[in-house]
């Protein structure tokens, strides 16, 4: 990670090198892009899984990773394929799945489209993030009721 962008994550390699992980614990690392995967693969013997992430909101994604949704998807598709080829388990996380502080409502269809693309690229699991605490129980219930039939065909 770039220390000038997220100083708290700058020592990730050192943390991985120093921790004593029990044999029955899987180690997962957060990967924002190709450079992050490169760094993770330098620690391949210490990690089991990667988690890629992006936002369902165009504005949030640009502010968070300085890319459009299309640019993030294109890069993460390559990251996921490469990680899978290295035997890593892969998860995709979609931030602002339930709302965005900049744009407000985020259409579930947009979230489902991103989830499908991440799955097709190699994500074995997709998480839907309520990044800024905007979700409510009814919204979440309706979201997952719609997600099941929409995503079921792409996950079989």
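-> sequence recovered:
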């Amino acid at each position: 990670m770039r220390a000038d962008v997220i100083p708290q994550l700058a020592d990730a390699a050192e943390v991985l090198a120093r921790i004593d992980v029990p044999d029955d614990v899987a180690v997962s690392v957060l990967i924002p892009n190709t450079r992050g995967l490169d760094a993770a693969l330098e620690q391949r013997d210490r990690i089991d899984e990667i988690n890629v992430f992006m936002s369902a909101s165009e504005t949030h994604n640009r502010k968070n990773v300085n890319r459009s949704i299309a640019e993030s998807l294109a890069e993460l598709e390559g990251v996921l394929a490469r990680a899978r080829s290295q035997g890593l388990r892969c998860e995709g996380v979609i931030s602002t799945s339930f709302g965005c502080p900049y744009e407000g409502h985020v259409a579930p269809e947009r979230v489902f489209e991103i989830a499908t693309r991440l799955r097709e690229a190699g994500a074995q699991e997709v998480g839907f993030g309520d990044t800024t605490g905007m979700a409510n129980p009814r919204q979440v219930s309706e979201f997952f009721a719609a997600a099941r039939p929409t995503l079921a065909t792409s996950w079989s």
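Residues 1 and 12 are 8 Å apart (CA to CA).
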